[in-house]
Design goal:
Low-confidence stretches: 318-332
Bound molecules: adenosine-5'-diphosphate, magnesium ion
Number of helices: 9
Strand content: 25-35%
Number of strands: 20
Oligomer: single chain
Order of helices and strands: EHEEHEEEHHHEHEHEEHHEEEEEEEEEE
Helix content: 10-25%
Distance between the termini: 35 Å
Length: 367
């Protein structure tokens, strides 16, 4: 089922005192039928509120929620046909795995399903979440990961129009999280169930989702495939939030990007003259033996994502650079960049090096 949110505003009235705006400040979201959409954003960006509005647990101050062509905004949660999985296990402690899952089935059907039918369906769901054989266990006899699998099976039991998950793996350790992430993707591929998945973990969103919606301060900043949001961020916020990057305060002048007086080969992307921010992924930075490189020194060499990274502190000011004026945004930039080291590249802390900037993106000087 296609799910749309149009112009959703939700203000809890606490924004003014906390200095923040509305929890949701005009959200547009269009989830295609059968899609697995991740809502990704920092804590407090409005992810849970948006999910609750879609579920019908929260009424928006303005805007509409559509399930297919139907305006579902005023339909109460019990009649919306949504399956929910939260971070904290919401299993019934006094019910077996079987009965936890069957609970949804029984509530749903007015005329009660026959026992054999229920057992058949529970068995199917347990196979789907890879827990076959555990139907007689009680929640306290399961690991955290297994409990979330049961919660998932229970949410799917009612054949919801949309499956909503709010940081479902947030309380689990890294290894179990990864397994569950994989399972959720497999289950999604097997069922084609329209799914909206909330997370603040970009790896989870980028690995799992068909598309990712990036939330910032109650607004969707960008929606796209994992590749699109990572490789073609439309704002400094998205660039900084998705993937790893370092940030340098630069100056646009004569249609070129300058860093502390040195002209860089990064395109200024049509930004007007003045201060700007340059974001650099590790692959945009290389150590060089050439004389044109920016001077700096290695502060840390560390292992990351299967490779080795060197962090470099760029020198405060090359001899030929104009002094920075006090209003320059240099104060917000720590002049640190990172590069991926080649297997045989030797680098250690304290080495004086030169850095070539081979890529990167500039954005206006405000995030
Ligand atoms: N029931 C509530 N009452 C008051 N403020 C709330 C309530 N729920 C959420 N908020 C506020 O709305 C904003 C968004 O919260 P939330 O949707 O929980 O963000 P996220 O899930 O992205 O961390 C936050 O500033 C939060 O404090
Ligand atoms: Mg939340």
């Amino acid at each position: 089922m296609r799910i749309r949110a149009e112009g959703i505003v939700k203000d809890f009235g606490t924004g003014a005192s906390s200095g923040a705006g509305a929890a949701l400040a005009g959200v547009e979201l269009d989830v295609r039928s059968g899609e697995l959409m991740a809502l990704l954003g920092p804590s407090g960006s409005g992810k849970t509120t948006l999910l609750r509005v879609i579920a019908g647990l929260e009424l928006p101050d303005a805007g509409q929620v559509y399930f297919g062509d139907e305006d579902a905004t005023a339909i109460p949660v019990a009649r919306r046909g949504v399956g929910f999985v939260f971070q904290h296990y919401a299993l019934f402690r006094h019910l077996s795995v079987r009965d936890n899952i069957a609970f949804g089935l029984k509530v749903k059907s007015r005329e009660r399903l026959r026992r054999a039918e229920i057992d058949g369906r529970v068995g199917e769901l347990l196979r789907l979440v890879q827990l076959d054989g555990l139907e007689k266990r009680y929640p306290n006899q399961l690991s955290g990961g297994q409990r979330q699998r049961v919660a998932l099976a229970r949410a799917l039991a009612i054949q919801p129009r949309v499956l909503l998950l709010d940081e479902p793996f947030g309380a689990l350790d890294a290894r179990v999280r990864k397994d569950l992430r994989r399972s959720l993707r497999d289950i999604h591929d097997a069922t084609g169930q329209t799914t909206i998945f909330v997370t603040h973990d970009q790896d989870e969103a980028l690995e799992l989702a068909d598309r990712v919606a990036i939330l910032n301060a109650g607004r969707v900043e960008q929606i796209g495939t994992p590749d699109e949001v990572h490789d073609d961020p439309r704002s400094a916020f998205v660039m900084g939030f998705v993937g790893e990057s370092a940030k340098l305060a630069v100056e646009i002048r004569d249609r070129a990007v300058h860093y502390r007086g040195a002209r860089l080969s990064v395109p200024p992307q049509g930004l007007p003259d003045g201060p700007a921010l340059l974001f650099l992924r590790p692959q945009d930075v290389a150590l060089t033996s050439g004389p044109d490189g920016l001077p700096g020194s290695i502060t840390i060499v560390r292992r990351a994502a299967g490779g080795r990274r060197a962090e470099i502190k760029l020198d405060a000011a090359p001899a030929d650079a104009a002094p920075l004026d006090a209003t320059s945004p240099g104060a917000t930039s720590r002049d640190l960049v990172e590069t991926e080291l080649g297997t045989h590249e030797v680098a250690s802390r304290g080495d004086l090096v030169r850095v070539a900037i081979t890529g990167g993106r500039v954005f206006p000087d405000r995030v």
